[in-house]
Amino acid sequence: MELNERKTRILEAIIRNYLETGEPVGSRTISKYEELHLSPATIRNEMSDLEEMGYILQPHTSSGRIPSDKGYRFYVDRLMQDKEREVADMHEMVVQKADELSELLKQVARLLADNTNYAAMISTPQIHHNKLKFIQLSKVDVDQILAVIVVEGNIIKNKMIRVDGEMDADTVLKLNLLLNTHLNGLSLEDINLGLITLIKERAGIHSAVVASVIDAVAEAIRADEDLEIYTSGANNIFKYPELTDKEKASDIISTLEEKRQFGKLMRESLQEAAEEGGTGTGIQVYIGDESPIQTMKDCSVVTATYELEDGMKGMMSIIGPKRMDYEKVAKTLKTLQTQLDALYKKT
Amino acid sequence: MELNERKTRILEAIIRNYLETGEPVGSRTISKYEELHLSPATIRNEMSDLEEMGYILQPHTSSGRIPSDKGYRFYVDRLMQDKEREVADMHEMVVQKADELSELLKQVARLLADNTNYAAMISTPQIHHNKLKFIQLSKVDVDQILAVIVVEGNIIKNKMIRVDGEMDADTVLKLNLLLNTHLNGLSLEDINLGLITLIKERAGIHSAVVASVIDAVAEAIRADEDLEIYTSGANNIFKYPELTDKEKASDIISTLEEKRQFGKLMRESLQEAAEEGGTGTGIQVYIGDESPIQTMKDCSVVTATYELEDGMKGMMSIIGPKRMDYEKVAKTLKTLQTQLDALYKKT
DNA sequence: AATTAGCACTCATACAAATCGAGTGCTAAC
DNA sequence: GTTAGCACTCGATTTGTATGAGTGCTAATT
Question: Where are the beta strands (DSSP E) in chain A?
Fold first, then answer.
C-alpha cells in the first residue's frame, strides 16, 4: 500500500493531536480539521490502512489510535522539517560562563530541563583528541608526589602518587623537565606505551621508583574516562501519566541516577553525528526501542552533540515521553549548542 | 496519664507490626502476641489511651492504628536501644579504597542504598579545619596561571587564574615561595583577609597583577563550599506505596537531585552531633516534620556523621518511609562509619 | 469508484448500590 | 481489672448499569 498525500496528512493530524493531548485520537476528532474535508467514515477507512501499515495502533479494540514507534519516526524524519519555520518565539536561554566547566554543564542541564519540561542530561566533553599542555610533578610529602596535568581547554587532572622509596627534589625537577619535553603538545591518544618506555629509558635506569612514577602519570593521562554526566529535571517525568506508573518511573529514575549507563548512548550518538558529517546538526532522535539504553524503551531520547573550542565534543540529551514536543526539543538543543559554542569562542 | 509498662509494650508491638506490614494494625492482631496475654478488648482500651496521648492515630474512624511522629520518636529514643543485641547478622560491607575520594563516596552511597533498600546520600567532608599543605603556582600560558592547592587529607583544589598583564617566570617562583612560607600549616579558616593583605605587602607594590593573583588564590582557598553530594538508590522509594503517589515521589526525587538542599540538613546534623559530644554515635533521626528539609515531611531521614583522618567530617544519610527499619539503618550507618574510619587510619 | 450515512457492536469509564469485613466503642458479665 | 458480646462505622471490593467515544461494515449517494 502506498502512503499517499492524504494518508500522510491524516497521519500527521493524528500524531500532532496525540502530542498535544496524550489521549488516543478518533476519527471524528480528525474530521474536524478543515483542511481535509473528510467525513469520519472516510478517516476511519484511512486509519484502518495506516494501522495495517504500522504507523498507528489501537491501545484496545475500538478506541482511538495512537502513533506507533514507526509513526513517530516518520513524523520526526519527514514531517517535522517542513514546519520548522513555525517555531520561532522561543526566547534565548542565557548561559553564564562558569569558572568551572562542571558548573557550566550543570547549569546547561538545568536550562534544558526547565525549558522543555522533560528530563535532561549532559556529559563532559571527551578529550582524547586534545593536546597535552603542561605537566607538573610536585613533592607534597615524604612519600607523595602530586601530578598535575593540564590539557588543552584547561582541563585539569590531578593524581596523587604514593612512592615506595625516597625521591629527592632534584629527581622530581628532572622528571618534570623530561616529561614536559617529551609529551607537551601531543594529543592524549598519541601518548602510547612505546613513548612511555622511551621516557623511562631517558630517565636512566635510576630506580624502580622513578619508573613507577612515570607509569602512574601515564595512567592518569590515559584515564580519560573521567567522563562525568550531569542530570536535571528527573521529576519532570511525573508530568506525563504514561511514564508515571511505578515500574516505568522507577526504571527511568534509576537510569538517570546510574549515569554511567549513558556511556553507550553517548558513544553511539557521537558516532552517528560524526557519520552524518559536518553538514548535519548533530541531533539524533531515538524513539522507544531504538534507544541503546534498554530501560528507555518507553521514552524518547533526543541527543545533540556540542563542541567547545579545540574540538572537545560532548553530548547532551533530553529524555521524555514518546509524545514529546520534538520540535521544541530540537530547537532548544540547537540554541544551547550555539550558545555553548559562542561562549567559548569569545573568551 | 502515665505510659506504664503495659502501654509501652503494646505501643512497641503496634509500631513493630506497622514497620513490617505498612498496614494499620488492629487490636486483634496485637492480641495474638503471646507475651501479652490480653484480649482484643483490653488492647482496644489501651489503644484508646495511647491515641489520646498522641502516640498513635487512626487514618480513619474504625480502622487500625498507625504510629504518629511522636510514636516513632518514642520508638527510636526508648525502644530501639534495648533491642540492639537482636540485630547481629548483618554481614560486613566491603569498602574498597578508591583513588579518588569522590569515587569512594559514590561507592559508599551505593552500599548504603543497596543494603537498606532506601535512598542514600553522602557528602564530601568539610575541610575548613584542615591545614594547608602545599601551594603551587605554575605558568601554563602567556596569560594563565594555574594554582594548585593541597590540603591535609590530600584534598586538591585547582584554580585557573587569568592574568591581565604580563607575569614573568621569576615572579611566579617568588610568589610561590612567599605563599608557601606564609600559609603552609595554617588551617583554611585561619587564612583571613589580614593575612592576605600582609602577603600582598611582602610581595612588594609590584603591580596590580600580582595582587590580583594573590586574591584569586585566597578566593580559591576560601571557597570550601566545594561541598559535593552523592546520592544513590532514589528508585528505592518506589518500593514503598506510601511514598509512591505522584506528588510525594516527585518531591523526593527532586530533592535528591537538587543536592544542595541537603546543605541545611548537613549543617544541622553536624551541629547536633557536635553538641552530643564525643560519647554519642553521631546518629540523628528526623521523623517527618522534624526534618529541616520541608519536602521530606513524609519521610524519615537518618543521618550519621563520619570522620576521616585529620578530623574531616562529613555526613551520610538514609531517606526512607517513616516506617523504615530504624535498627537496620542505624546498624548499617554505624558499620560504614567504622569502615571509613578504619580505611583511612591504616593507610 | 470514491465518499458518506447509518447502524450494530465493543469496550473503557464513571457511578451507584450492595456487600464484606476489619476494627472500634460501649456495656454488661466475669 | 479483664473479657465477651454486640451494634455500629467506614474503607474496600464487588456488581450492575448506563454512558459515550470509537470502531467496522454495509448500503446508499455522488
Answer: 56-57, 66-67, 119-123, 132-141, 144-151, 155-162, 229-232, 283-287, 299-308, 312-321
pTM metric for this prediction: 0.86
Phi, psi of A226, deg, nearest 5: -80, 20
| Cβ distance of A141 and B160 shorter than 8 Å | no
Give the three cell numbers for residue B234.
532514589
For residue B253, list its beta bridge partners: none
Find the nucleotide nearest B23 (Cα to C1′): C22
Closest Cα in chain B, distance from residue A39 (Å): 40
Rounded Cα distance between A86 and A92, Å, is: 16
For A40, counting Cβ atoms within 10 Å of its Cβ (0-12 exposed, 13-18 middle, 19+ buried), the class is: middle
- The closest of A260, A345, A337, A324 to A80, measured between CA atoms, is A324
Query: CA A251 – C1' D22 distance (Å)?
Result: 33
Which residue's entry shows cell 500524531? Answer: A15
Stretch A190-219: mean pLDDT, rounded? Answer: 84
C-alpha distance from residue B81 to each of B75, B78, B87, B275 (Å): 9, 7, 10, 20
Cell 500522510 locates to: A8
CA of A74 to C1' of C9 (A): 33
* Mean pLDDT for chain B overall: 86
pLDDT tens for A82-128 read 555 444 444 466 666 666 788 889 999 999 999 999 999 999 988 88
| CA separation, residue A329 to residues A291, A292, A320, A326 (Å) | 17, 20, 10, 5
CA distance B308 to B318: 19
- Count of Cβ atoms closer than 10 Å to residue B128 Cβ: 15
Res B45 pLDDT > 80: yes
d(CA B301, CA B316): 10
What is the C-alpha separation between B217 and A137, in angstroms, rounded? 20
Helix (H, G, I), strand (E, B) or coil at B228: coil
Q: Which of B133, B140, B234 sits opposite A254 (nearest CB)?
A: B234
| Residue B82: its H or E element | helix B80-82
Is B234's pLDDT higher than 80? Answer: yes
Is residue A141 classed as helix, strand or coil in its secondary structure?
strand
d(CA B30, CA B37): 10
A246 touches chain B (CB under 8 A): yes
- Chain A partners within 8 Å of B107 (Cβ): none
Separation in Å, CA of A159 to nearest CA in chain B:
9
State how far Cα B173 lies from the chain centre.
41
The confidence score (pLDDT) of residue B166 equals 79
Asked if B27 and B50 touch (Cβ cutoff 8 Å), the reply is no
Domain ranges within chain B, ordered by starting residue: 5-78, 97-124+227-343, 132-224
Tens-place pLDDT, residues A241-297: 888 888 889 999 999 998 888 988 988 888 888 887 665 678 999 999 999 999 999
Q: Assess contact for A159 and A209: CB atoms under 8 A.
A: no
Predicted pLDDT at B345: 67
Chain C: bases < 7 Å from a protein Cβ: 3-6, 9-12, 22-27
Q: Quick check: A235 and B250 CB within 8 A?
A: yes
Q: For all residues of chain A together, what is the average pLDDT?
A: 86
CA distance linking residue A198 with residue B188, whole number of Å: 42
Q: Which CATH number fits the domain B132-224, given the four candidates 3.30.390, 2.60.40, 2.40.50, 3.30.350?
A: 3.30.390
- The yes/no answer on whether domain A5-78 falls in CATH 1.10.3720.10 is no
Chain A residues near residue B148 by CB distance under 8 angstroms: 136, 138, 146, 148, 158
Residue B227, C-alpha cell as written in the block: 561541598
Which fold, B97-124+227-343?
Beta-Lactamase (3.30.450)
Cβ-defined contact of B232 to A140 (cutoff 8 Å) = no
